[in-house]
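TICKET #2291
ISSUE: user wants both folds in one file
ATTACHMENT 1:
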Amino acid sequence: MPPRRRASLSTPSPRRTRCRTPSPRRTPRRRRLLLLRVVAASTASRRAPSLTHTRRAKSHRETRRRFAWPDLKRRRRDPDHAKDLYVYEENGHKTVGSCRWNRGWLKGCFPNMPSDPSAPVRCSGSTMGSRDAMLTYVDAMLAASDEFMCHRKGIPSDQGYHNFLILSGRHEANGLRVVSNKRGEGVVHTIGALNGGDVPMSELGPLDTKWKIRDSVKGYITNVDGSMSPVVHQWDRWASEMSRWLDSAFVRDNFIPGERELFDRPPSFVEYDPATCTDMPWKSAHRSSCAGLRAEHHDWVSSPPERRPAKEACCKFGGGIKTG
């Protein structure tokens, strides 16, 4: 007879069960309602974009409308558009023959290159084109540097190579089509040379009142047709006129159009009779006489030991030696 088992004195622990919320029964009608909700939500999200998306789309349309250049849009339809290389000219007073810097770069490194001295100077700081055109341009610049090695002749100038390739026809030989834009007529507006040494003293003056390429109220640079220039190159050559506006409009963000003058305008030259007024000797590190001073130089002081203010030495500022 098998032995009896002893009864255990310990009480067995109750079985643990999870509390589950009974889910509603998914009847065919309920499935149809859920499907309709999903479809309605996806349709609403497509028809009612977010506020941020709306603002971005509006901003994109405004930007595209503002900078939609008809010439570029027409050229994009041209099957040869990928061959276009856009270069930008400087001031008309500045040619490869009249500018001593550009003349020196070309003649010093490419002495046997036939060139027209009246050809405009194209600034090497701004060049535009398709991907293929720009790769061809860069390859041509590097090849010319390896061929002529201007830097070993003491002429380390990228603008010399830039103008050489345009004037010599090497871009066309490489399959490119050079599109040269006059100052103020293209996407890039190069304004530095308007304040350069090649400009006659009689034609110097502010960007808004003299050159007519700046909005006198809103402050931005315009093309010759009055439209806003999309890209402005060499604005720093006009720092005395542009710095205050740039700081207020873009750094501090407190510019109010028309609230005050865009810059401190220099005093106008004084009319005088050379027979009754003679300039005093005046020389500084940048100018050798009163004749080379501009209106904005009225507060300059000559080099030691004289340390003579230009307003005192020069007749055109109201100074000088009065005779008769």
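ATTACHMENT 2:
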Amino acid sequence: MGKPGCHLCEAVETEVRSLGAAVSRLIVVNIDTDRVLYDKYQLRIPIITVGGKVVFEASMMDPEGEWKDRLSQLLGHTRHRLPSAT
């Protein structure tokens, strides 16, 4: 769930779509069109639910980008990181 113009929502949607086949169904819900969802989630977007349960929200995002790995794991996909150059 998210809303237009939310840069965090756009980042999460892009990341989920990059998982491709690992994510069989993505439904984007605009909370601006549902007052109940807006009131409940406006300060927590982006929200990802699986089976009706919230599994990811904005508070889980970090500036280092580790949220991408957590999100991938939550959605059942294993990301392969390139080794860091030292």
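RESOLUTION: both attachments delivered.
EXTRA DETAIL ON ATTACHMENT 2: DSSP finds three helices and two strands in the chain.
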